[in-house]
Design goal:
The structure holds two protein chains of two kinds. Chain A is an alpha+beta fold. Chain A is built from 25 helices and 22 strands. Chain A has a six-stranded mixed β-sheet with strand order 14-18-19-17-16-15. In chain A, strands 6-8-9-11-10 form a five-stranded mixed β-sheet. A five-stranded mixed beta barrel of chain A has the order 12-13-22-21-20. The two termini of chain A are 66 Å apart. By secondary structure, chain B is of the alpha+beta class. Chain B has one domain: OB fold (Dihydrolipoamide Acetyltransferase, E2P) (Beta Barrel), CATH 2.40.50. Chain B is built from four helices and eleven strands, in the order H-E-E-E-E-E-H-E-E-E-E-E-E-H-H. Chain B has helices at residues 2-14, 70-73, 146-150, 153-163, and strands at 17-23, 26-31, 35-40, 54-60, 63-69, 86-92, 95-101, 103-109, 115-116, 130-136, 139-144. Classes of the chains: A alpha+beta, B alpha+beta. The A-B interface holds A 350-355, 358, 600-601, 645-648, 686, 688-696, 698, 701, 703, 707-711 and B 42-43, 45-50, 54, 56-66, 95-97, 150, 155, 158-159, 161-162.
Chain lengths: 719, 164
């Protein structure tokens, strides 16, 4: 037992990590999908992701994943090293997504306890062909590099090369080694020299720089000598000693040079004109200079690949003027700082904290403290500190279960991208309010229905390019995906500017299927639209790859209903459709305002409150039938007295004793009269136990900081 | 296997044991296997427009639990809650409900043979909650059917209503 290699934990870790990496990969790809190519940060990131996946899947013995990620890694290695121009970006994007899908599929199999048996060969073949193609495209300069590409690919080049900062004691040397004519393998000899200097060198540059990988470099060395720039805290003699002088070396010329010269490297023209400028740049970006110089070299002096040394890797540092990409990278760093926790543990923690709050109240309001003449100053101080901490603790756990919809929405981005590409439609996806937080359980349930809706919009909603041209719509279709908190629910809205729903077609189809049995006029628009959510209904004549089988909408509705939500369909023919998912906010955190009425505590969503008004008796209007209205600044609002509305005992009768809260729900406004305004708090909404029948005007309950329960007002039920 | 054995054993040890409490002058008993825990009376948030015996909601370590007043359920006169008032949290078919009782008594063992059906005379309306009368060493206990206690007909009636 003990010696058994524990793969359980590793497997979980592997699945989780790889899943996250793939998500990140997809988000990078989709962020760049409309660009002409990947920028450097993206290339590096993708390379790193593929490298990690390759490594970890290798350890887990999933060879097909490992092979395929290896291939993609190769491609990005090439992109990174050679920076070829003319890379067919769209094709590449497709391949990346294919690979991502493949790996995701395999991961799913592993998760389900199956063997990951997907056949990677096709895709690997395609990737290889693609790599060849871009190498060909790279122009003549890249050509000679091809033979060693394979070899290079195996070099685990994940380290970034950052030139060490020169210290005061550092000295710079220019070294030229010339070999006797006819020396064989002079490039290897040159490399030996480089290798021996590595021990003392703080930084080292040499040309030709591809001595290991390019056999022809030997000829260059013989003809022109081997040139090195070395930064080291050593004397000339030390260096001379280290370089092997025993065989075939004709002459070693070591000259001390300035730091500027060193930084400029091998580009003579740079050395003359721009030394000063280069020096300046050294100040702000240590990493950039050498490589930039090297890049210059590549254009002037032929192929100058960044780094031939195994294990080292030179990257062009970020140029100024790319603040957006920097920001994005920070964003990614933030994403990585997530850990996954078992939900059960979270629930336990939540319960325990609840108990802690109660225990706290028991201690702080202990009757033993009420002995007269007790000096409690220090106790009170400590108690205040304790209360503060427990409140914060409670807030933290309440917020913990909530997750923004960002990831779910990002997936939709991918779907729009795939679907629109397959159908040849140009579609933009606009995402609004992706930071709306929803309980994790709910997120899991809405992902699939949302996918269906988006697919429907892409496939049925948005017209083809030609159709759009005939109308005066912009050529690019647009789908808006929006999330917001509204009336105690989370609304997720999918809106497209496509052709909208055809009422007559739907009605006819419904008649054919025996769903509709009345005349068309007897149905409201909304009822007709709701036909499409019934099983087996699809107006689309032909079934496409994406949708049209008529299993979509009823599944959507079923799934949404399973979590207590609903689906609203609005549509205007020719203008587009709007599908609104209304998800209950079970456990959704809302900002609430706490109100007191007749000894009871109520919470109303902050967003629903327009204002609070202290009113006077003369603003009231009483109807004989008992209805009350109030005039506030010339507008008349109906008044709901919370204590009367809920038949509570007590509570202020005079409107001048309490306060009016003006609430708004879907354009309708109502004035709610309460006794007092208690405060504002972020609250976690919990459903009222099903044992208690549903009360109109109350949508849930919540636990306040002191452990007591407040009821949440459903503004919609009051107006 | 081990779990199963334990469970069987558990059920065995719980068999024939009843949590008894006092309401009015009578002692009532409830099968101990239904009882989750007993807590002191705490702040109850009343829910408007519900039956009067549903006193409201309590916060049981972060769980919202509805509580009902047994006295009101039996249509007895309400009494003021004191330090002796307790809430018995019971779990009936995954519905967790708190019962407010006047005083907790003790756990008694009543053999099945000592339980007789309630007399059907007199049309005492609350008899529908009592499924048997148990004779324990220190007196007679009215044994409650918790299922009926919380899932009364009118309860299920309005449950149906809300489902629609």
């Amino acid at each position: 037992m003990a010696e058994e290699f524990n793969t359980e934990g590793m497997l979980d870790m592997f699945l989780f990590e790889s899943g996250q990496l793939l998500e990140k990969l997809e988000s990078i790809v989709l962020d760049n999908k409309d660009a002409d190519g990947f920028d450097e940060a993206a290339i590096n990131e993708i390379f790193r992701i593929m490298h990690t996946i390759k490594g970890s899947s290798g350890i887990m013995m999933y060879t097909n994943i490992s092979t395929i990620s290896h291939k993609l890694e190769d491609i990005f290695y090439f992109l990174r090293e050679s920076q070829p121009e003319h890379v067919p970006h769209e094709e590449l994007t497709g391949y990346i997504l294919d690979v991502s899908d493949f790996i995701q599929g395999e991961l799913q199999k592993i998760q389900d306890g199956e063997e990951p048996d997907g056949d990677e060969k096709d895709l690997v073949g395609q990737l290889e062909a693609f790599l060849k193609k871009i190498k060909g495209n790279g122009g003549t300069v890249q050509k000679h590099e091809e033979p060693e590409e394979k070899e290079k690919a195996y070099i685990p080049a994940q380290q970034y090369y950052i030139p060490p900062v020169a210290t005061e004691n550092s000295r710079f040397y220019r070294i030229r080694i010339t070999y006797e004519p006819g020396t064989e393998m002079s490039n290897i000899r040159a490399y030996t020299a480089v290798y021996s200097l590595k021990e003392i060198a703080e930084d080292l540059l040499y040309t030709p720089d591809d001595i290991i990988t390019n056999e022809n470099s030997g000829d260059v060395i013989l003809a022109e000598g081997f040139l090195m720039y070395v930064q080291a805290q050593a004397t000339k003699e030390d260096i001379l000693k280290l370089i092997d002088t025993s065989s075939c070396v004709n002459n070693i010329d070591i000259q001390e040079c300035s730091a500027e010269e060193f930084l400029v490297g091998f580009e003579p023209s740079q050395a003359e004109g721009t030394t000063e400028e280069k020096g300046k740049e050294t100040g702000n970006s240590e990493g950039g200079i050498i490589i930039e110089a090297a890049e210059e070299g590549s254009s002037a002096a032929g192929k100058h690949s960044e780094d031939p040394k195994p294990g080292d890797y030179v990257i062009k540092s970020k140029e100024p003027g790319k603040p957006k990409k920097m920001a994005k990278e920070q964003n990614q760093a933030a994403k990585q700082s997530f850990i996954s926790v078992n939900v059960e543990k979270m629930d336990l923690l939540m319960d325990l904290i609840g108990e802690l709050v109660i225990a706290e109240a028991v201690v702080l309001q202990n009757p033993d403290l009420k002995v007269p003449g007790l000096d409690l100053t220090n106790f009170q101080k400590a108690a205040a500190q304790l209360s503060k901490t427990t409140t914060e603790l409670q807030d933290a756990i309440m917020a913990m279960r909530m997750m923004p919809l960002t990831n779910t929405f990002q997936k939709m981005n991918r779907i729009v991208f795939d679907a629109s590409r397959k159908l040849g439609k140009d579609i933009d996806l606009e995402v609004v309010g992706e930071n709306t937080e929803v309980d994790k359980n709910i997120i899991e349930h809405i992902s699939d229905p949302l996918m269906h809706l988006i697919r429907n919009s892409v496939d049925h909603g948005i017209e083809t390019r030609e159709e759009r041209q005939q109308t005066d719509k912009p050529q690019r279709g647009k789908i808006t995906l929006e999330a917001k908190n509204e009336g105690g629910k989370v609304w997720i809205i999918v809106k497209d500017d496509g052709k909208g729903l055809n009422k007559h077609k739907i009605y006819e189809k419904a008649c054919q299927n025996g769903i509709a049995d009345r005349s068309m006029e007897a149905y409201t628009d909304r009822e007709i639209y709701s036909f499409i959510t019934l099983p087996g209904f699809s107006t689309k004549e032909k079934v496409t790859e994406l949708s049209g089988r008529g299993v979509g909408m009823d599944v959507v509705v079923k799934n949404i209903q399973a979590i207590g939500g609903s689906l609203d369909i609005e549509s205007e023919e020719g203008k587009g459709s709007t599908m609104t998912l209304k998800i209950p906010l079970t456990l959704a955190i809302i900002d609430g305002i706490i109100l007191g009425s007749a000894g009871s505590t109520f919470v109303v969503e902050t967003g629903a409150v327009k204002e609070f008004v202290r009113v006077t008796e003369d603003m009231m209007v009483y109807e004989p039938n008992g209805d009350e209205y109030i005039m506030i600044r010339g507008t008349c609002f109906p008044v709901v007295r919370l204590n009367r509305h809920f038949h509570l005992q007590g509570g202020g009768e005079s409107v001048e004793d309490g306060i009016m809260a003006v609430l708004e729900h879907e354009e309708k406004q109502v004035c709610v009269f309460v006794d007092e305004l208690v405060g504002e708090q972020e609250i976690v909404v919990k459903p009222i136990p099903s044992y208690i029948k549903k009360v109109k005007g109350i949508s849930g309950c919540t636990q306040l900081g002191d452990g007591s329960i407040a009821l949440i007002l459903d503004t919609g039920g009051l107006v | 296997m081990v779990d199963l054995e334990e469970k069987v054993q558990d059920e065995d040890t719980q068999r024939g044991k009843y949590m008894t409490f006092k309401s009015g002058n009578e002692y009532y008993g409830i099968g101990i296997n239904y009882v989750n825990e007993i807590i002191g009376i705490q702040k109850i948030t009343s829910v408007p427009e519900t039956e009067d015996y549903i006193k409201g909601l309590i916060n049981l370590r972060g769980k919202i639990v509805p509580v009902i007043d047994v006295r009101l359920r039996f249509r007895q006169e309400p009494i003021e809650y004191t330090d002796r008032t307790c809430i018995i949290v019971i779990d009936v078919k995954n519905i967790v409900v708190g019962l407010i009782v006047q005083t907790i008594a003790e756990v008694v063992s009543i053999d099945d043979s000592e339980i007789s059906p309630p007399p059907m005379i007199g049309g005492a309306s609350n008899n529908k909650y009592v499924y048997g009368i148990g004779k324990a060493a220190n007196g007679v206990k009215l044994l409650l059917d918790p299922d009926k206690l919380i899932n009364d007909k009118d309860v299920s009636a309005f449950e149906q209503m809300t489902e629609q």
